[in-house]
């Protein structure tokens, strides 16, 4: 099968070996696995982090977002059958989805939204799971709840932020404030439903006071948490909750004590990585998201389509992700000839 992989980590993206077109053996599904013909993928920051920091001697395939059609099922599969169109984010402990054929545990796959194209659907799995778990499981906001409370989303124009804004606005009564620093990204966040948009390059509290919000009850910090950490403590009201998904080098949490603030980590790979008893919840929430999309409650967060799935296009996609200027999700579709 065609695949895009690397064998030397940390190479600059202008080096052709940083990501290479390869022919690799077709995987064999395990008892609870789906063997999927991949139609479209999306690129996430985790892809670039693994490429930059993980040593590999055998070819390592990246990618943790995919839409495809089930070709074959394992002996114990009960949720799907061949021919089903699925979408999922996979497991970081297994080979990724930059490949023509891929295996995924049925418990972390969902039925792809019928109203979306493959490219549009590929934008959603990883970020939808992350945003859903962050909002409802980690920050503890109940569906339909949050009246009188407010959520500040740091980096709201990115992949996770783009779906988190929608979930918070459509499924809760929170006042939703997103941050974005450029006119185009500010317009994007507004279009997704944020009540207010402020600039994370400017002091946060004066901007929150200017829009009549003041201190907030919840913060979702999606990027550069270490740079904004002092300000986030300042803008959180006493007994507020801070959730984060990025990788700060260090955090001094002691200043949180005076306000009795709580800190919550979200990693959507945890359930699959440890095969937790509630692993199937990711299947359920992906089906729920698909239903909300098909009803018009949520929309795709596709930002840019980078063409067919090959090494050259993926190197361009990684470069955009690493620039920090991506809006929404970067998606690739189908397998073309190597460039």
From TrEMBL:
Record Gene3D superfamilies: Medium-chain alcohol dehydrogenases, catalytic domain, NAD(P)-binding Rossmann-like Domain
Subcellular location: Cytoplasm
The keyword Oxidoreductase appears for this protein: yes
Main location: cytoplasm
CDD domains listed in its UniProt record: AL_MDR
Superkingdom of the source species: Bacteria
Any matching Pfam family: ADH_zinc_N_2
Keywords per UniProt: Cytoplasm, Metal-binding, NADP, Oxidoreductase, RNA-binding, Zinc
Record bears the keyword Cytoplasm: yes
Listed InterPro entries: ADH-like_N, ADH_Zn_typ-1, ER, GroES-like_sf, NAD(P)-bd_dom_sf, Quin_OxRdtase/zeta-crystal_CS, Zinc-ADH_QOR/CCCR
Domain Enoyl reductase (ER): 14-332
Subunit structure of this chain's protein: Homotetramer.
Family: Belongs to the zinc-containing alcohol dehydrogenase family. Quinone oxidoreductase subfamily.
The protein, known as: Zinc-type alcohol dehydrogenase-like protein
Organism annotation: Pseudomonas quercus
